[in-house]
Amino acid sequence: xxxxxxxxxxxxxxxxxxRVRSFLFLFIGxxxxxxxxxFYLVALPWLTLQLTNSGxxxxxxxxxxxxxxxxxxxxxxxxxxxxxxxxxxxxSNALRAVVAILLTVIVALQAIQLWHLYVFSVCFGIVDGFFxxxxxxIVPSLVKKELLVASNTLIQGTNQLILTLGPxxxxxxIATISIESAFAIDAVTFIFxxxxxxxxxxxxxxxIETLQTVDDLNSKNSNLSSKIWxxxxxxxxxxxxxxxxxALRTVLLVVMVYNLVFIGPLxxxxxxxxxxxxxxxxxxxxxxxxxxxxxxxxxxxxxSLFRNIPRxxxxxxxxxxxxGTSLMFLGFVPNVALASLTIVVLGFCxxxxxxxxxxxxxxxxxxxxxGRVISLRMLSSFGIAPFSFALAGLLVDFNLTILFSLTxxxxxxxxxxxxxxPSVRAIK
Length: 428
Fold this sequence. Notes:
mainly alpha, globular
């Protein structure tokens, strides 16, 4: 059943995109791959702490992936615009399968060392820099504009469902079988989704060259220096578009500053809670990661269920204030149950905002430049992640409660300052 929304666009029921064959294949493949990633995301930090017992080491391992990911996002955006996003995704998943297989073998042979984790993290980060913009840019080429909200709700909602179930299963898998089994399953899921992507066909993908500029097409026959120049010009075009669009620029800058004091403290802080404050080890970590996914699932469904959603600027302020308050509470919780409930709230706010914001960007961006704009959005999150991990890694070794309390205060002050700015409140 269709219903109206604040933007005035017709909005279809959230299951309608599954009737589109190519979207269905994308949906199945990427969710299977995401399930495997949850095993990896529990296994990697747990293995790091087992080898080093150091929050700083955990932070630097996460930075090893975050830095190349952030550095290459803009390049990944222009590659996604110049090539078919599907081709970029297929190549990325195939490469990640190879890396995951190598990691599995080294861990199974009990030859793993800390430097190996840095190398594999860098490899995953490089590939992610290309995969992330392509995975977001491909959706508008598969479904009608009217199905974008439903498509993003489906994607984000099922992602969060997997984030709810996957970490618990991953933690149990590590505790009862072995840590290398988690990496092996991740490798298998990359192979599976690579095969499914071969059957995905997009209407915009098929005519992508009609959306490119004359300079883009001429660059195919130019020399290497000209190709590099055109590549840089394409990246600059995406940056200029984002910078001269006031609403988009404001949202990207706010998200970037916000994530500086959120991404690292949450990921490193939750891992440290499981390792040093609570009993249960990897299972406790899996439960809390699943709580994040469960909250995110509820949040991802919210835009399709609520008829009157506040304008984006107001929504950003409300959700940010709730998350800042919740982080403060997380620093003092005495057990896994209360920590998990708090993380559910954090996940809900995140899932709600991501679906609303990504749809907002997709609807307002020309298809020919969407990959670059999406890469700017991802850069505002992933680009700041290395600094956030470094900050959190230092603070967590000093005091876990201070880590959460300090970051909470910064977020609340940021939200109060933004609320006083009419241009932020007016974003819709």
